[in-house]
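Exercise: predict the structure of this protein bound to pyridoxal-5'-phosphate.
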Amino acid sequence: MAEAALSSLRNLPSVDRVLRQPDIMALVEKHGRSETTLAIRETLAALREEMQPGTGVDDAVIVASVLSRLDARADKRLRPLYNLTGTVLHTNLGRAILAEEAVEAASAAMRQAVSLEFDLASGKRGERDDHVRSLICELTGAEDATLVNNNAAAVLLVLNTLAQGREAIVSRGELIEIGGAFRMPEIMARAGAILREIGTTNRTHARDYANALGSETGLILKVHTSNYRIEGFTAEVDARELAKIAHQHKVPLVNDLGSGTLIDLSRFGLRKEPTVREAVEEGADLITFSGDKLLGGPQAGFIVGRKDLIAAINHNPMKRALRVDKIRLAACEATLKLYRDPDRLAQRLPTMRFLARQVDDIRQMALRLAPVLNEVLGRGVAVEAAACASQIGSGALPLDTIPSFGLSLRPTGGGRAVEALSAAFRGLPWPVIGRVTEGALHFDLRCLEDEGAFRDNLSSLRFEAAS
Ligand SMILES: *Cc1c(COP(=O)(O)O)cnc(C)c1O
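Solution:
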């Protein structure tokens, strides 16, 4: 019927009539009635706005528009992608990639009931932390340990437990901002602690700590200034000496390590970051560090140290609000277990595998992929395999770079072409994220492992270089 095929402005079909169309009924099957109805309403409203008086609209146009609206709504916003930025632990791209062992443990915990707070030996109620406590103690030499949502939560909880309404002494050189809203003075205020800043930006001495200690002191906080470095005329008090000062005055020393690694990174040719075990040996009473930075596990905040202080933390009602769920707990346990065999860590833990990867291996990959990209992009883009430098990211060793290799894509047209090129790679089924500098798009291949999948993905690339 002509009337059914061509709806004029006056008689745009009703929602019900559209719903009865066979093509639409198939969409209801896939997306559900309410999603489909919503898409139809939006489509009809948009057409009513756009249509010129007296013109009509083909039913096929309505169906196509409903379909594209449904597809857009079903599109995942949180999508897997290739991190070729050169920053291995990229906070905006989700930091550490989990080991297979951790992924399996996490998905098992999602599918089945688990002994989360249940002691299988006695059949009685157990402790959520028990699953990782002994492992963390074994790997760090600490007396006791607990786990919260992230390191920011760990710092907040420690400050609130030990220094609410009391002073927390910190060197002015360590009052850092980590990014986003994590600024040490603000976290302190929210924890109810009174910030007692001492020393100067570049130099803080033992006597500055000693002079500030008093009846109001709740703790001394040492912060690993992971994301910046002060150079030149500087002085800080090392943790061992600081522990002595703290203990003479019977106050705890808390060391926020930030990234906190469990092994000496120099075995992978990287500069040494302080390990958690060393921080324990230096005498800090509590140490906090992240799960998804150098440790290579899921997002989590570890608090390790003195048994009595961990007990106080576990009695703080805030602990309940900051605790981790069974999925991450399972992933943490599996990740930590890998550290029992440090020799194979560089194969099994993706973060270490990426950081330890030999530059020649990366270079070979770049040399293989350069002609592939050249072919895909055609004449308008100059593709070159080139040396580059990776960094760890997430504040670890910010000034140190690791020699790496990658691809440099330079549109010959200049202008804004590099933005369009970068957008084209972001638009792939598996978006490819690089870095744009000086008119070129750079891909650092350090974190690329599945070369075949990467090539397949490129077949969807649409980029027309301006001539
Ligand atoms: C990264 C960092 C934090 C915050 O850790 P999250 O795991 O991101 O919450 C706190 N302190 C230091 C020194 C850090 O480097």
